[in-house]
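The pair is quoted verbatim below.
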Amino acid sequence: MISLYPRRTSRLFFALLVPLLAHSAGPAQARELPAPAADSAIATALSADTLAAEAQKPKPTRLTPLPMDSLPHIHPRDAKGRITDYTVAPGVTWHYDKPKPFEWAYHIPRDLGQFPGFAFRKENKETLIELAAGSVALWVADQYLVDWSQDVGKSIGLKAASTQKTLIYIPFRIGSANLPFEFNVPDNLNSTFYFLGDGWTHLTVASSFWIYGGIKKDNRALRTSSQLGEAIFSTGLVVQAMKRLTGRQSPYVATKDRGEWHLFPSYNTYQNFVPNYDAFPTGHLATAMATVTVIAENYPEYHFIRPVGYGLMGLLGYSMLNNGVHWASDYPVGIALGYAFAKIAVRNGRTRVEQPEAIDPTVHGTGFRMLPHPKPWYRRGLFSPYAYGPFTGASWSLRL
């Protein structure tokens, strides 16, 4: 006992010795240290011993869980070394298969077939009415908006002409149709804005995702590239069909305010003077909207994609008013088409991974689940994204 606890033994010995000395000192001296004082001295010694022993014990480390937002996005690889599952938000994980070569091409007929059922659903009724009303309102103001845009361009020294330099030109004809392969680059600022909607720009974006996905074995990047291909070409087919049905004049060749409509022009008539018939709807903004939507839907954790994409689309829209290629009323339908085909392509190109029910750490094999403490009312809100027709956003609801 003495060898194991020398400090404790000495303190106990001293504490017991104090009342003995007080008793042997006589009645007068015994009164100077009454019995309660002796008990207090013993308690003090025992308390000091307990504190010393507790101080020597190792203290357990308490792990504080990190919030979900502070954890890095770790995407495990499968047996083939490919990244297939991506957790983009708490409880939201998407699975992407590796696309087959040219899968985007033979998915175009499927997307075209699904478009009517997707766009003309009952829940989209109000959106379609608003889309039509907005187009009509813009049509009324078309001439004013084009004139105003060109006046602004002149005041800031922005050239209205859309001029480009041809880097590559390979002639190609199918019957009477002239379909050359050419690659042009803009040579002024307004043309640079206009080039944001060029097919080469978006094919370059799609190719970048394909190259990155191939190098990193990243299925999401490969699927994004494939979905961009099918969304862009599906949108382009519908846009071209509508252009050839409506035959609206572009502003810079218009023979009257807001341009004329030549419904159902013949193929040869259309091909002989395309600007006289191809204003409605816009193909540039439709393609741009498809690209932004596909990327934003597949990478929702990167919140800058939509603001940056929509900002660039705004510059593109202004440039087409300034150079007289499009009217403002050409925009709503084109944007809606690009959005719809992008949503269809993304919906068909990934699957939601069902999350297993979280294991409650308070359960220790008793067969009973200990209920957590209820959250205060201000922490019961549910924040969730939504997509309604051509509109996206987020909602917050209170669960009582």
Remarks:
- The radius of gyration is 37 Å.
- Residues 143 and 257 are 6 Å apart (CA to CA).
- Confidence is low (pLDDT under 50) at residues 1-38, 61-72, 358-371.
